[in-house]
Amino acid sequence: MKAFTLPSRLALVPVILAALLAACGEAPESDRPVAEAAPEVAGEQTYRRFCFSCHASGAAGAPRTGNAQAWAPRIAQGMDVMLRHTIDGMPGMPPRGMCTRCDDDELRAAIAYMVERSQSD
Ligand code: HEC
Fold first, then answer.
1. Distance, CA of 28 to CA of 5 (rounded, Å)
2. Ligand 1 and 112: CB distance under 6 A
3. According to the CATH classification, is domain 5-116 in 3.55.50.30?
4. Pocket of ligand 1, candidates 44, 51, 84: which has the most ligand atoms within 8 Å of its Cβ, to mutate?
């Protein structure tokens, strides 16, 4: 389950650029759509590689992604507290959610990715 999202998205880039070229008849502004999508993609990639194993199923008592009820009290603590707990680890979750090479921003993006999908509307 590794390499499916990013390659398929990247494969779209030339198509999008070609469409932009065809539409306005001049060169599109470099790679802007890719740059704007980057933080979301980074969070998703980290999530899929490192957090998914527990947070998709609720393994080890992890709050399941998409379960607004399980996430509400955690979201209420605020991002900084959730980030600190992720960095330090919690019962059932190893430090940095097992992504030892992730920096704090990558962890934050992965948390944001899960939180975004776990909010009640
Ligand atoms: C080995 C399983 C496991 C993995 C992998 C894992 N988690 Fe967790 N996570 C847990 C468990 C279990 C809890 C609940 C801990 C508790 O409440 O005692 C948790 C809780 C959390 C919380 C809530 C923290 C809070 O303050 O309530 C966040 C945020 C979180 N994980 C983020 C992540 C991120 C980001 C990753 C990937 C980089 C990740 N987790 C990977 C098991 C895991």
1. 24
2. no
3. no
4. 51
